[in-house]
Amino acid sequence: MRRLVAIAGHTFAVELDLASEPPVARLDGEPADADLRRVDARTVSLLVAGRAYTFYLEPGEAPGQLHVGGSAGNASASITDPRRQRREPEGEAGTLRLTAPMAGRVVRWLAAPGDELAAGQAVLVLEAMKMQNEVRSPKAGRLSACLAAAGEAVAPGAALAEIE
Amino acid sequence: MFRKILIANRGEIALRLARACRDLGIAPVAVFSEADREALHVLRATEAVGIGPAPPRESYLNVERVIAAARQTGAEALHPGYGFLSENPALPAACAAAGIVFIGPPAAAMERLGSKTAARALARSCGVPVVPGTVNGLKSADEARARAAEFGYPVMLKAAAGGGGKGMRLVHRAEDLGPALELAAAEALSAFGDGAVYLEKAVLRPRHVEIQVLADQHGNCIHLGERECSVQRRHQKVIEESPALRLPAGLRERMGAAAVAVCQAAGYVNAGTVEFLLDAENRFYFLEVNTRLQVEHPVTELVTGLDLVQRQIAVAAGEPLDLRQEDVTWRGHAIECRLYAEDPEQNFFPSPGRITRLVTPAGPGLREDSGIYEGWNVPLEYDPLLSKLIAWGEDRAQALARMRRALAEYHIGGIRSNLPLFRRILDDPEFAAGDVDTSYLARLLATAPPALDGNWLRAAALAAAAGAGGNGANGSAASAGGPPASAWRRAAWREEILG
Hints:
The complex is a heterodimer.
Chain A: E1 2-7, E2 10-17, E3 24-27, E4 30-31, E5 34-40, E6 43-48, E7 51-59, E8 65-70, E9 73-80, E10 96-99, E11 104-109, E12 116-117, E13 122-128, E14 131-136, E15 141-146, E16 153-154, E17 159-163
Chain B: E1 4-7, H1 11-23, E2 27-32, H2 40-43, E3 48-50, H3 63-73, E4 77-79, H4 90-98, E5 101-102, H5 107-114, H6 116-125, H7 141-151, E6 155-159, E7 169-171, H8 174-192, E8 197-201, E9 207-215, E10 221-233, E11 236-242, H9 251-265, E12 270-278, E13 284-290, H10 297-304, H11 308-316, E14 333-340, E15 342-343, E16 349-350, E17 353-354, E18 357-359, E19 366-370, E20 377-378, E21 385-393, H12 396-409, E22 411-413, H13 419-426, H14 429-432, H15 440-445, H16 454-468, H17 484-487, H18 490-498
Parallel strand pairs in B: 1-2, 1-4, 2-3, 4-5
Antiparallel strand pairs in B: 6-7, 6-8, 9-10, 9-12, 10-11, 11-14, 12-13, 14-21, 15-16, 17-20, 18-22, 19-21
Helix pairs in contact in B: 3-4, 7-8, 12-13
C-alpha cells in the first residue's frame, strides 16, 4: 500500500505492507525500521529505532483527513492514494468565501456589500458560547456578498460572505 | 450542619461542590438544563432536578426555578458555584425569603461589592489604592473620549456588572473608543443583563495577583494568600499559580491586610477574592472583589491544605472560623491549567461537539477537576470550560515538571481544545523563568509556534497512513460524519496491520 501523507506542511511518501513477513514500512523510499501496532480501534503504537510513540487517530473534517494526536503534538494529516490523485476543482478566480469557524449567531455586520476591505479587517461579529468575536477578512478585497443576516444562527463551515 | 445542599451550577464546579458535600456527609442535589441531561454532574448525582430549557436564562439563570428545585428536594442550603447566579444579589434574597441558607455572602455585601465602581469607592475609603478611572457607567462615546483624554491612553473598558473578561476592551486610540464601547456594552448586556461599562487608565504590563479571603458570621476575617493569574488571553485567566512569582517579602501580608480591610468594610461573609493589579515596581492597585468561589480556588487549596468549599459550608452553617491568620501556612507551589473547548489554531473559537476520545493523566502531585467524559457532547450553550488540571510540587520547578508530564499524558479527541497551548506555555523558557505579566500570552501568541519534532512527524505520517487503512484515501477509516465505531472496522484493520 502506498500513500502520500501531508502533515504539518510536509508530505511523506509512505509504503506499508504489514501483512508481509517481515512487515514493510518505508518512508520516502527508505526503510522506516518501525514496529507498528494497532492497539485498539483508534490507537496506533509505533516503535521507531527504539523510540516509542502513541498516536490517537480521529476522523478529520473531510474524506481522506485524519487528526493525529500524541504526547508531542497534534496535527491534521491528509492521506491520498497516489494512483487516484486528481486535481482539486478550482473556485472562481480570486473569490474567497468567509465561513463560520463554529456554530454561532451573527450579531451584526461591520461592513456592507461593495465595501473595500483591508486584510485583517473585521467584517462581522459572531456570538458563540457567550463571547462576541469579530470575524476578519484574511485578505484585502471587495465584500461582494453577505450570505447570512444579522440575528441568524449559522452552522460551522456555513458561508458568511464572499470577498473578491 | 446541613443534611442536604442544592448545587445551582453545572460542569466541573458542580462536581467539585458535590464532592465537598459528600466528604462532609451532606447529600448534594444537582440541577440541570435540557442540554445537560447527560452531563457528568448529572450522571454522578444521587439526586437531580431538571430546571428548564438549554438557554441559561430559562434554567441556570432562573432564580425561581433554582429555588423551586431546592424546595422540592428539601435542601436546607444552596451553593451557587461561580458564574450564572453566583454574583446576583437576587439569589441570596430569594433564598432568605424561602428559608434556604445561601452559601456565600449576604445580599447587601454582594451588592456593595458587585458593582465594580461602588467597590472601587469602598476600597478608596479604606485607604486601598485604585487605578484612576470613572466612578459611574459611561453614558456616551463622547463622555468616554473626554474621560480617556483626561486619564491618558491606553484605557480599559470594563463591564460594571461583569467578570471573566466579558465586556472588556483595551483601547489605544481615541478613534477606536466608540466601536470598542459598543462591543463591550453589547457583550456586557448579553453576559450579565446589564450593559453598563466604565473606563479606567490601563496599567501597562501589569501582573494580576489576587487574595483569597475567608470571613465568618462572627466578625473573623482572614486571608489565605495570593494567586498569580497573569497568564491571560483577552482578560480571561488561562493559568493560575500560588504563590505569586517574585513576590517581595512582606507584600503578601500587606495585600492580604488590604483585602481583609475591604471585605470587612463591606460586611463580607464567606469565601471571596480581592483582585489586584501589580505594576512593575510591585505597587498594588485594587481591581474588584469576586463575591464567590473562584474557578482557580484549587491552587490555594493545594498550597494551604484547606478545603475551601468545606469551609464555605461551615461558615454558612454559622460555625466560627477555627483558623486564625497565624494558623495559615503555605507549602510548596501549585499551578492550574484551564482546559477549554476552543481551537488555538482558529483564533480560539469555541469548539463544541462530541468528545470521541479522552485519555486523562494521573500520578504524584496531580488533581483534575473535570466535567467531561468520553462520548459526551460538549453543548454550545455554555462556557466552554472542560476541566481544570492542577499540579502541586515542593517548589515551582517541580510543579511545572509535573504539569508538563500531565499535559503530555492528556488527550482529548473529537473536539479541539487549548491543550496544545498549555504544552507550548509550559515549554516556554520565559514562562519557566517566571517572567510573566498580563501581556505575556499575547506576546507568545504573536510568535510562530515551535515546529513539530521531525521524528514525531515521520512517525505520525506512518500512523496516519496505517490509520487510513486499505480502503484508499476516501475509505471508511478517514471518512467524516459516521460514528468512530463504524468508521474503524476492526476486522479490516486486523488484516491490514497484523496480516
